[in-house]
Design brief:
166 residues, alpha+beta, Aminopeptidase, 32% helix, globular, acyltransferase activity, transferring groups other than amino-acyl groups, Acyl_CoA_acyltransferase, acyltransferase, GNAT_dom
Length: 166
């Protein structure tokens, strides 16, 4: 699937051609690097050694075993979404490519075959909360700890395909 995204930039319109395609094994290194750089940016409250350990799991399990789609621009991966059924295990965009519609395109791809999506977001990650809520995700639950049992509150969000503003 090819999606043309039009970005307004100081009075001019430029086109960024984003292709969404399934994950390939050769994407692993660059996507796990995108994951780490983006995580350091928005998950600064997590210890760096925890993020590095999680990166190894992303590379060895989550990317290859999930239903993963990759956003590619100029033949280079710039982001990905990892799904397990209707659950978004992760959506990460290269920090240099954020705020250009890539995350929305990845979610649109995920909604193509799903009536709804759910996900968890750290309560301390205001940027992600604003992003998901702008699309139409609503809070449906909270947990006082994350999946690893660390004391960081996680908000569960859900969005029906018909309500998604993409």
């Amino acid at each position: 699937m090819r999606v043309d995204i039009f970005i307004q930039s100081e009075g001019s319109v430029k086109t960024a051609q984003i292709k969404i395609r399934p994950y390939r094994a050769e994407d692993n290194d660059i996507l796990s690097d995108i994951w780490l750089r983006a995580s350091r940016l928005v998950h600064g409250f997590l210890p760096d050694q925890h993020l590095v350990a999680q990166q190894a799991l992303v590379a060895s399990i989550y990317l290859p075993e999930g239903d993963t789609y990759v956003a590619v621009q100029s033949s280079k991966p710039v982001g990905f979404i990892g799904l397990r059924g209707a659950y978004v295990g992760g959506l990460f965009v290269d920090p240099a490519s954020q705020r250009k519609g890539t995350g929305r395109r990845l979610l649109a791809r995920a909604f193509e075959a799903r009536a709804f999506l759910t996900l968890g977001v750290y309560a301390l990650n205001d940027q992600a909360q604003r992003f998901y809520k702008s699309i139409g995700f609503e809070e449906v639950g909270r947990s006082g700890t994350d999946e690893q049992g660390m004391p960081f509150e996680v908000i569960t969000l859900r969005c029906e395909r018909e309500a998604a503003r993409l």
